[in-house]
Amino acid sequence: MSSHNSDANLDEDNLALLSSEEAFAEERFTFNCNLNGKAISTELPPSRRLLKVIREDLELTGTKRSCEIGRCGACMVLVDGRPVNSCLVMAYQCSGAEITTIEGLSEVGLHPVQRAFLEEGGFQCGYCTPGMVISVVALLEENPHPTQAEVEEALSGNICRCTGYGGILRAVNKAIGG
Fold first, then answer.
1. How far apart are CA 39 and CA 166, in angstroms?
2. What are the tens digits of pLDDT across the range 3-41?
3. Which of 86, 118, 140, 144 could pair covalently with 50 via S-S, beta carbons 3.0-4.6 A apart?
4. Phi/psi of residue 57, each to 5°?
């Protein structure tokens, strides 16, 4: 093998070792959105996930990082009113969107769903609670009087490892009724 070919292979091997953010460190795009009612504009690499933007760049840590593969719901946010796993979405996909995090729900006091979770013990460690609350808020915005099956379907993307769901379902039912 010629040294030229081995150098090319070495470069390819080194490039494969770089993370996607390092590989595109020079590339940037302007991320514009309305986050929790405020206009945001920042330069980001195109490989930046929405979860990292929210938690690391904007320091809104209520949105939790957990499985990072879209199975647990801890990172749930509202994007144009729809619940989205922020770990699965690239920031550029949300440019121009209205994004609401758990912090955005309580800017003028507790949201009724948050209050119901507190009053009904819909949390234990609290790690899943922001994602659960976001999912319930989205459900009630779309359907203020869901059936139990619709509630269970809406929460199917959220995992709680602590409570056994009794308090969560009581909280959702309280939010529906009050």
1. 38
2. 444 445 455 555 555 555 555 556 899 999 999 999 999
3. 86
4. -80, -40
CB 24 within 8 A of CB 44: no
User: What pTM does this model have?
Assistant: 0.83
Which residue, chain included where needed, has tokens 């959220």?
158
Which among 95, 75, 158, 88 has a CA at the least distance from the CA of 122?
158
CB 128 within 8 A of CB 147: no
pLDDT tens digit string along 90-145? 999 999 999 999 999 987 899 999 999 999 999 989 999 999 999 999 999 999 99
- C-alpha to C-alpha distance for 131 and 37, rounded to whole angstroms: 19
Element (H, E) at 33: strand 29-35
